[in-house]
Design a protein that fits this description.
Shape: globular
Helix content: 25-40%
Radius of gyration: 16 Å
Distance between the termini: 19 Å
Strand order of the largest sheet: 1-2-3-4-5
Number of strands: 10
Number of helices: 7
Order of helices and strands: EHHEEEEHEHEHEEHEH
Length: about 180
């Protein structure tokens, strides 16, 4: 998704109400976030937002000089560095080693990569944000949105299963603000 980021707006500080709304959106979308939200947003945290003009309705949420979240329309998803810090934040979908090079180029995850012997498919609904891991590696290498639910993936075992929205080495990973 993020091949090149240009045309960032100037930062906008979020008001207390804006921070509260963001916290509520995060805890509704990620139930595990309820116990982590105080660690991420301490009382004195400076939270700002940058709009990406080249991406439709996409904001980068910056907390105390660190990119932590991206908000695209109604979906808020964590930056990969935050997922490395708190791996339990999202469901873990594991692909076999053959899909590794394709993920780094921004390709979507195909169903056979999740159902093969090296893959691991956990229960997830369509449109749910998940972490994408590869067999033999500890940390997530991408964040994606489920295209099909896990039961459909097992049944069909064909086609795109997860849309890759942010991966190691993409423009968002390398962005310095």
């Amino acid at each position: 998704m993020f091949k090149k980021i240009d045309d960032l707006s100037k930062p906008t500080l979020l008001s207390k109400t804006g921070i509260k709304d963001l916290r509520n959106a995060l805890t509704n979308q990620y139930p595990l976030m309820t116990r982590l939200v105080d660690d991420i947003f301490d009382k004195k945290a400076v939270v700002s937002s940058y709009k990406i003009k080249s991406e439709y309705k996409t904001d980068i949420i910056y907390v105390d000089k660190e990119i932590l979240f991206v908000q695209k329309e109604n979906i808020v998803y964590p930056h990969l560095k935050l997922l490395h810090k708190y791996p339990e934040l999202q469901p873990k979908q594991k692909i076999d080693i053959g899909g590794l090079k394709h993920i780094f180029t921004g390709s979507d995850v195909m169903a056979p990569g999740l159902t093969s012997p090296g893959g691991l498919l956990v229960e997830a609904k369509s449109q749910e944000v998940v972490g994408i891991y590869v067999e033999g590696k500890e940390h997530a290498l991408a964040i994606g949105i489920m295209i099909m639910d896990s039961n459909d993936i097992r049944t069909l075992n064909h086609g795109k299963a997860i849309q890759n929205i942010h991966h190691l080495g993409d423009a968002l990973w390398n962005l310095k603000l």
